[in-house]
Amino acid sequence: MAFEVPDLPYDYNALEPHIDEQTMRVHHDKHHQAYVDKANAALEGTEWADRPVDEVLQNLDSLGDKATAVRNNAGGHSNHAFFWELMSPDGGGEPDGDLADAINDKFGSFSDFQEELKDAGVGQFGSGWAWLIHDGSGLAVVSTPNQDTPVSEGRTPIIGVDVWEHAYYLKYQNKRPDYLDAWWNVVDWGKAAEHFRAASG
Q1: Disulfide check for 63: which of 36, 67, 80, 116 has CB 3.0–4.6 Å away?
Q2: pTM passes above 0.90
Q3: pLDDT band (50, 70, 90) for residue 201
Q4: 69 and 147 part of one domain
Q5: Omega before residue 89 within 30° of 0, cis
């Protein structure tokens, strides 16, 4: 079955004032749709056309001359589908339970972790993403360029923030650090905890 853009799990304006309605409409309806359309076109007629997106992304070496188009566009689909679900109008605050313990053990404190993720996002040259991932042995903060995803390297995203300009420019212009500061107010830590449990299980 061809990839499809999932519906947002909340209204376009639900994340205001941190992420504005116009950005959400353009980001979800236009940018994500474009990734889906191009990924489907690249995979059409191949054995990978009906496979789950993350399975495709873990097998880029098998895609020959389509690998770059699929990495960029199926990656864009996977990253954005993950991103929409990781945010909530009831988000913010701090994690608790096992995820909180793991963050404190790895980074020293939640605020130290926030600073490291922000630094990864601010420091990502050009377009990309900043992630908290589980690499099989524990947590790590990484960044990826463009629509590359940790999934392709067998690592599990726990949280991820889009630092492409299309994610924030209408509201924050060139102030990526301000966007990253505001983004903490919409993180769904319950969803992040689900990802952590799945990665740790």
Answers
A1: 67
A2: yes
A3: confident
A4: no
A5: no
